[in-house]
């Protein structure tokens, strides 16, 4: 294939892949909204039974937020729950605060780990102490909505094959441009993808910040793997491979903190990208099992997305090189001529629809539409670069069995308020 033909093919791929996926997400999310959300009141369901829910919270250096997080859980409009907090080798005042909370409230139990073993290990140890059949795992810096537990449990009560239900994370720190853009991202990208995947019958990533599991399902798949950097993606794939139903419940709200600095955002996106490629590598065996054929399209789509990131970054690098040092090599713009305008316009349409749907959960969220215009310029570039950087590390650098330890998350400007 001639160089010009290859450039043409890759330029068409760079353009049409996000175009097609955006249309798929818009159609899927809108269909989910019409079928499962529109016209329904947001009153929490009244259940025939209220099984014990164990709220499992792994924590590492969370002295600034752990009290507020536990307080939000204690305000839950659910009659039967316990809280199990696992301190994973914190070096700040988190263990002392947890012991004080446990002494004050009988519903709170605490496990103290002397060494930082990583979030998956903390979840595994904590599960052994949970008495409930339903495990609600959430981050130690998140606020749980009072009715979230009812919405999540309703799925388990109605379906014996429901293995996990992921909730609806909402951004609560909005003091910087980066955080405000993520308000739109969680609606127009993450929320839309989960709605579309639910319609297609394969939700491939529960939100690690809020996800409920059936304990029997977790035991069936061997719990969380301790060597995966993104425990939420991997455990979802394990559940899907064992034919457990994974669902999305948009009414189960959880208010989260997101990175507000470029450094923190970069670290987060590299971790997400590395975790995704690790999962693809580990679960490549689905191609030898005909029963897993419904996972094949998702696997292919993720591989294509990685290829798109490399093509996008390569075109950007060649264009920049030609701009600084003009040469005669074949060069294509990242989005030549009218194509860039088409993609940006479709992105704005997608964001408008997503925010319009999510107005059910945040009345003033449409005001953030202004900040969404920056999404293509900031997040496409960062996400593509993060994938290019992280993929080799996931494929060749992370050894099986090595503990995936964590660091305290970046909360950016929120820590200065």
TrEMBL record:
Keywords assigned: Cell membrane, Glycosyltransferase, Membrane, Transferase, Transmembrane, Transmembrane helix
Q: Name one GO biological process term.
A: cell adhesion involved in biofilm formation
Could you tell me one molecular function GO term of this UniProt entry?
A: acetylglucosaminyltransferase activity
Name the enzyme's class: transferase
GO CC entries: plasma membrane
Membrane topology annotation: Multi-pass membrane protein
* Any one Pfam family match given in the protein's UniProt record, by short name: Glyco_tranf_2_3
Q: Where in the cell is it found?
A: Cell membrane
Coiled-coil segments: none
Q: Which InterPro entries match?
A: Nucleotide-diphossugar_trans, PGA_PgaC/IcaA
Q: Source organism's superkingdom?
A: Bacteria
Q: Which Gene3D superfamilies match?
A: Spore Coat Polysaccharide Biosynthesis Protein SpsA, Chain A
- Enzyme Commission number, as recorded: 2.4.1.-
Q: Which residues cross the membrane?
A: 15-34, 299-320, 340-357, 369-391
In which family does this protein belong, per the annotation?
Belongs to the glycosyltransferase 2 family.
Q: What is this protein called?
A: Poly-beta-1,6-N-acetyl-D-glucosamine synthase
Q: Which organism is it from?
A: Thermosinus carboxydivorans Nor1
